[in-house]
Each structure stands twice: as structure tokens, then as C-alpha cells.
Amino acid sequence: MAYFETDTGGRVYFEHHRAPGLPVVLIHGWGMSGDYWASAVEGLLAAGHGAIVIDHRGCGRSDRDFTDMSIAAIAGDVAAIIDRCDVPRVALNGWSLGAAVAVAAAALLGNRVAGLILTCGASPRYVQGDGFPHGGMPEDVLAIAGAITADRPGFFRALAEGASGEGASEAMIGWVERGFLATAPRASETLAGLATLDQRELLASF
């Protein structure tokens, strides 16, 4: 495990699990941390693949007081950490909001990306827009910050129950809930980026 220090002095936590095969960069969903990829890391290592796990700004063990919490900034961290790990090629796996980060990071890394995996991905768009009738509405995403401020524990409890799936154990729900509760006060700014995100042209260019 290590920390990458950004240009602004903030630290981003990452782990580089080395193995002979192509490393997979695991980019978690909003409000979570790299801890939730533990089983995936075990599976990758068993199959001979390396893994790089990153905690987004404001999440997990990364610093909580970044002023720039944007998807673009997190993608820049991902690309810089891959440089730091000195690996020639990687596959990127982004989960939920992490998929939008993965797409943005892929644009920065170019032909160093051997594959792009979008796991329940919030890409190319998360909300409805011109020519895209899928997803929710931008105003609903923007309203989440107010809902968190009004009842942080209640909001995250309900979110953890939904994210864990029907029939999930209390242990699972509690684990997910603790991840959400540990996020930085400004983490909702990252989520707000999904209200305007449009990666259709970017994805089509790969």
C-alpha cells in the first residue's frame, strides 16, 4: 500500500498487488473504497493477474479535504498512479461512478489501456438527455447533496440497503453503510458530476 501525492498536496491511497499477468485497475463506486474489491483482488491474483486498487479522493484512506472532487480529477489520479506503478499496460474496471472515472482515465492513458470494463457503469450517461432516454433526471442527482445534509445516517442506511441487494445479510448492509458514512463532506460534489456527464463521443472514439 502507498500514497500518491497530488499537485495540490493531497494524498490518494492505492495498493499495487503484483503478479506476472496484465494488471487490472479496480476503480470503486461513489462513496465506497478499494476495500470492496477484496474478493476481486483475490480472484485476479489466483488467475495470475496483478491488481491496482485506488481510493477516490474523499473516500477510504485518501485525504478528505480536496477542493477538487470532480470525476476528471479522480481520473487524473488514476492515470498518475498507473505511471507511479510503472506498468506498461493495464485493464481498467470501473464500478458505477467508477466507470465514468475509468472512461476518463482511458482517454488519458491512450494505448496503454488493454481493456475497459464498465461494471454497472454510470457511463456514457447517468441521466436522461438529448438522444438518451435512459436513467434518471439531472435534478434528482443534484438533490442528493441536500438529502445527505438533512439526514446523513438515514440516507446512507437506505442507500446501503439498496446497494446490497435483496436478501443481503445485516453484516453486508452494515459494511456498505460504514463505507458511505466515512466519505468526505464534499463527496456529493463528485456525484453531482453525473448530472452533466456525457461520454458518448469519448467511448465511441476508443
Explain what you see.
The structure is a single chain. This protein has 206 residues and is α/β, with parallel strands linked by helices. The chain has one domain: Alpha/Beta hydrolase fold, catalytic domain (Rossmann fold, 3-Layer(aba) Sandwich), CATH 3.40.50. The protein has nine helices and six strands, in the order βββαβαβαβαααααα. A six-stranded mixed β-sheet has the order 1-2-4-3-5-6, sandwiched between helices. Helix 2 packs across helix 3, helix 5 packs across helix 6 and helix 6 crosses helix 7. The protein is globular and about 45 Å long.
What do the pLDDT scores average to? 96
Identify the CATH architecture. 3-Layer(aba) Sandwich
Largest sheet: 6 strands, mixed
Query: What percentage of the residues does DSSP assign to strands (E)?
Result: 15-25%
The CATH class, by name, is Alpha Beta
The total of helices stands at 9
Task: Find the count of extended strands (DSSP E, 2+ residues).
Answer: 6
Which range best describes the helical content: under 10%, 10-25%, 25-40%, 40-55%, 55-70% or over 70%?
40-55%
Determine the N-to-C terminus distance: 31 Å
Main-sheet strand order equals 1-2-4-3-5-6
Indicate the radius of gyration in whole angstroms.
Answer: 16 Å
Q: What structural category characterises the helix and strand content? A: alpha/beta
CATH superfamily: Alpha/Beta hydrolase fold, catalytic domain
Q: How many domains make up the coordinates?
A: 1
Low-confidence stretches: none
H/E series? EEEHEHEHEHHHHHH
CATH topology group: Rossmann fold
- Globally, the shape reads globular
